[in-house]
Every structure is written in structure tokens, then in C-alpha cells.
Amino acid sequence: MIIGVPKEIKAQEHRVGLVPSSVREFVAHGHKVLVETGAGAGINFTDSDYQACGAEIAKSAAEIFKSADMIIKVKEPQAGECKMLRAGQVLFTYLHLAADPEQAQGLVDSKCIAIAYETVTGAGGRGLPLLAPMSEIAGRLSIQVGGAYLLKHLGGRGRLIGGSPGVEPAKVVVLGGGVSGYHAAEMAVGMQANVVVLEQNHDRIRDLDRHFGNRARVIQSSRDSIERYVLDADLVVGAVLIPGASAPKLVTKQMVKAMRPGSVLVDIAIDQGGCFETSHATTHNDPVYNVDDVIHYCVANMPGAVPMTSAQALNNAVLPYALALADKGWQKALREDENLRNGLNVCAGKITHKGVADSLKLTLTEALSAIAA
Q1: What is the mean pLDDT of the chain?
Q2: What does DSSP assign to residue 302?
Q3: pLDDT digits (tens, 9 = 90+) for 75-125
């Protein structure tokens, strides 16, 4: 199989679909890898580094899309990239289609085979192993960036996350106790903040309570508890995920209006539409905006800020699945592995993931039927 790795073109996205060590694995399995020139420059990998691992260097993205059987990326294809996809070509990357009807239509029109990292499931259908490493990083980053925007000269309340002897620390509220929420809480606790985690799942609440003990409060999430703790917070991290579907809007415009001026909202869930009513996606070039004097940080590719860490972590998780697709062919690989098949979002013009179909109000085609067709 010919594997194509184009350079990421989303604003301030420096990660790369395959690092040189991953290329070496594909070559060892007998596959050909085409890497666009400069694709790894954002994390200090040169074209020579890729060539030393057996890759061939392509002069343009157009050459990659024309020649490759499978495209491996990091972020969702931009409009120009969607137009270069072709029928039967495999695209393996993050998609987040529930909040992006234009991209979904572009993938449908291309008749490609679009497999989303974020909906591939773990053993027994539990967990999201290809989303988890980026969720971990985004969770940790949320406290760093939230703490930065609490600084007075950046528009914040002027409160230090960890406080000072004799002075109370910042109040940090984390909505959702999943992977990203857990790592956000862990960072906030480590920085000595006053931390509250709001979670719905009773088993998860017990796990979090056992882990954090008296270092953080873990509270049953409800409309009442969300309003109570959000209005009292200095920093709120939105970390709620429904796999493949739009994020629920847990914080209303009225709540935002009632928050203290200079408070900060960080919406990790923005790729899926965000969990604040006032959220809209931003970029690293222009990461924040204000609504009712509340700072909103809604960058849709947060881990792109630390590409050296996040590209390697993503490759570690993606490589076994990508090799299965290349070694077996996409049809056999998806038929044999239900968890990988759960990653199939679009197949030859059909929407094959229920969360995406429901969110976009489109017709769902059962994945196995689409593969067989």
C-alpha cells in the first residue's frame, strides 16, 4: 500500500501524521510511504530524517493525494484537501464531524473511506484509545492556559492559580471527569488550586473520589450544581464528551453573564461544538475572546501548541491501527475489528456513525453494509 503524509495546513498546526520512527515501521511491513516536503519541520524532523527511514519525499500535497492509497493526517481535512480526496481512498485522521456539516458533506461527496481517530473504541467497546493521548494533553494544557489568562494584564481577574500563604487559591471547576477532565483536575490539584469536578456517572464519581481524596471535591453533575459552582469559579474547564456526537451545552449564556468579570472558560470540547453556549472555535493565532467580560479560550487544536509531545503521543497510539489497515486492506481490517470499525464515519458516500448521523440529521448506513457495498 502507498501511505501518504501531507503537511498539516490548519492554522498553527505543527504536528505530523507520521514521525520518522513510524515511517520505518510501515516500510518494514513492505509499504511505500510518501511524505510531503517540510511535513515534519514543526517538530524539527527534516526531509532527510524521513528519507533515512525509507520515505520518499513529495513536492506537494497534490502529489500525495493523487498517489496514496491511504492518507494519514492529524487534523480534519480542510476544504481544499477534501476536494483532492478520491473514491476508495482511505483517510485516517481526527474528523469531529458532528460540529462540521461542511466537512461531512465534502467527505460524502469525495466517496472516500473516512476513519476518525476519535471514534475508534478500545477493548470491549470501552474507551477511546486514539483520542485519549490528545485528551490527556488538552486537559493538562487547559490549566496552564487558563491560569495564564487569569493574569490581570491578559484581561483576567488577577488571581494566581495556587494562591499564596494566607491568600486563597483560584477556584477551578472541571465539567466532566473523563480523560481530559481527570488530567485537568490533576494539574489544577498539583498547582494547589481549589478544585471541583462535576461528573454524572456514579462509577466514575467513585473512582475520582478514591483517587483525589480530600485534594478535590467530586460532585454529582446537575443543572443546579453546574450553576452553583460555575458562578463561583475563577476558571471553568469544559471537558464533556459524547463520542462522535455534539457536546451538550452545559453552561448557558445567562450563567456566563452572571460570572465574575475576568473569569476564564476553557472549552476542551470545542471540536465537538463546545459545552458552553457562548463558545465558538478559535485558533492559536487568536485564541481568546470576551463575552460579558468572561474570557473564552476555545482553540480547536489545543495539543498543536505542544507538537513535539503530542505528535509522538499520537503516533504511539495510532500506529497499530494504521498498520492493520495497511497490512490487511481497509475492508478486511474493519470487518475483523469491531473497535476499529467504530472509527468509520463516512464510507463511499454514506454516513456510518450514529453519533454523526444524529448530530447532523443525516441518514445512517450500518457500517458492515457500507463496507460490503
Answers
A1: 96
A2: G
A3: 999 999 999 999 999 999 999 998 899 999 999 999 999 999 999 999 887
- The per-residue pLDDT for 245 is 76
List the strands of the sheet with 350-351, edge to edge: 56-58, 32-36, 2-5, 70-72, 90-93, 113-116, 344-347, 350-351
- Among residues 31, 96, 183, 296, the one annotated as catalytic is 96
CA angle 31, 35, 37 (to 5 degrees): 160
What CA–CA distance (Å, rounded) separates 247 from 268? 10
Our CA angle for 343, 179, 272, nearest 5°, is: 55
**Is 31 in the active site?**
no
Does residue 271 carry a catalytic annotation?
Answer: yes
DSSP 212: H
Determine the topology of domain 2-120+307-372 in CATH.
Answer: Rossmann fold (3.40.50)
**Segments making up each domain of the chain, as ranges:** 2-120+307-372, 132-305
For residue 19, give every residue at least 6 positions away whose Cβ sits within 8 Å of its Cβ, in sequence order, or none: 40, 43, 45, 311, 312, 315
* Tens-place pLDDT, residues 124-166: 878 899 999 999 999 999 999 999 999 999 999 999 999 999 9
Parallel, antiparallel, or unpaired: how do β-strands 70-72 and 171-175 relate?
unpaired
Count CB-CB contacts under 10 A for residue 278: 21
Alpha carbon distance 269, 252 (integer Å):
15
Distance CA 256, CA 254 (A): 5
Question: What's the rounded Cα separation, in Å, for the pair 142 and 333?
Answer: 36
The H or E element spanning position 220 is strand 217-220
- Alpha carbon separation from 220 to 192, 202, 241 (Å, rounded): 22, 8, 16
Residue type, 215: R
Q: How many CB atoms lie within 10 A of CB 166?
A: 5
CB 291 within 8 A of CB 264: no
Which CATH superfamily hosts domain 132-305? NAD(P)-binding Rossmann-like Domain (3.40.50.720)
Catalytic residue (choose from 100, 234, 267, 271): 271
3 state SS of 237: strand
Residue with cell 474507551: 127
